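User: Predict the structure for this protein chain, please.
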Amino acid sequence: MKVFVAGGTGVLGRSALAPLLAAGHLVRATARGREKAELVRSMGAEPIEVDLYDLAATRRAICGSDVLIRLTTKIGSVSGMRSARNWEETNRLRTSGARILVDAAIAEGIQAYVHESVTFMYREGGTTWLDEEAATDDGGTAILRAALQGEREAARFCETGGRGIVLRFAGFYGADAPSTQETLAMARRRLLPRIGPGENYFSSIYVPDAGRAIATSVGLPSGIYNVCDDEPLLFCRYIAALTAAAGASKPLRLPSFAGPWLFGDIWKYFSRSLRVSNAKLKAASAWQPEARSARDGWSLVANG
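Assistant: Here is the predicted structure, written as structure tokens:
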């Protein structure tokens, strides 16, 4: 198939290009500037520079494609995540940007639209496994409101007769993700504390596994699919796995009330217990995560 990847040079975009190409698809991907264009070209895909907020330009860019994959985000540094301004462009890409992409896909007769979303929108689940039917909640935050609004664009695409696939990604990490390298550096400097008891479940996904899930998604039926590993960890154990991978000393311990002060609104979903299930994606495809848990994945990052 002819596949167009919007957000082709981001962390998820880069991870998806190789498995898409290996599956025999003809891939075009957005890339701004010569350096990013060369990166896309070196991987075997065709780089396209386009303003994704311009409907006419977007239609021209995706014309002739069978599948449109939206992986557009622009998230800043880990240390800046508490700032609302840090999320403004990502929120816009998930709402206005998604709307324009879907408008273009409908107008161009694209067969399938794949939409990147997040698992953090699930409500507090305690020890219960959360599948795609579990209740969602925006937590009163603009970040999750935008994510839910973006998913509605995929539903709108389905209403026109196309295949709309939503991939809800857990917290991702990988060797070539700037956020991962920043997180490891923070752990080594003991700037990544364990806040509160850490007895909530945290679901995660190793970036190469996320990339293979994206490649698999082009053949999935319409619907929502969780993209996460097999074994969500209690947050205290997740931090321990991360710290061990960094070769760092034990993290500092801080009380729960420090969470909102350090992380702002995103603490509302970092502190939720989200034991997310990937059973639906595995049942619908041959996808299996290489890193079954963050213990495995952070070890792969450390040894990579």
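Residues 22 and 287 are 15 Å apart (CA to CA).
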